[in-house]
Specification:
The chain is α/β, with parallel strands linked by helices and 226 residues long. Helices cover 46% and strands 14% of the residues. It contains nine helices and seven strands, in the order E-H-E-E-E-H-E-H-H-E-E-H-H-H-H-H. Strands 1, 2, 5, 6 and 7 form a five-stranded parallel β-sheet that branches. A two-stranded antiparallel sheet has the order 3-4. Helix 1 packs parallel to helix 7 and helix 8 packs across helix 9 (212-224). It starts with a strand and ends with a helix.
Length: 226
Amino acid sequence: MTRLNVLAEGYTERDFAEKLLAPYVDPQGRQVFARCVTTGRDHRKGRVYRGGLPNYGKVKADLTRWLKECPGRDVYFSTMFDYYALPTDFPGYDEAMRKADAYERVLFLEDAFAKDVGDPRLIPYIQLHEFEALLFVAPRELGWTYIESDTAIENLEAVAQSFGNRPEKIDNGPDTAPSKRILKEIPEYDKVAAGVDTLELVGIDALKEACPHFSEWVEKLVRIFV
């Protein structure tokens, strides 16, 4: 039976994979599993710390461990990492940064990542430019969580329109990345509290229509279950 394991940058990405992505790519069953990157272990207390991407070494070590735990040819793996603040020791990072187009950069990084891991079952995915870009597909839906934010949401909709309603094109500057733009308008915005719930209202199909790179990834995952 085909199985998909998704290694997520954080808990919001993990929840997105479990709640929205899983039933979309595998409507016949529950064979999609997600967990956050292991960032540390306290063997004395028996604790495992997860979430975040402190460096590429921890990413590769955790993914390699999971690949070895699930050796079957019908078990696939993917990732959900943000391009924004991606560790600079990521494979191909310096060369990717010399490319002018964001789509070219992220595709180059994904290819270099796959080659470095060296397992054909890996379908790498790096989100342009971060998880919050997906919220710009339909900023109006944030209003269900953040009431009385009409002006703020109108401003966010204007941002989306300024990028041709292609949220993946929103840049990754320290003050202008998608999450920074949302926080500027809605200071109380909380990724964990609002992220996945908002995207449930938007739906995977709408996200695919507005985000070509995201769409390509989802379609790859759909095909492994066909």
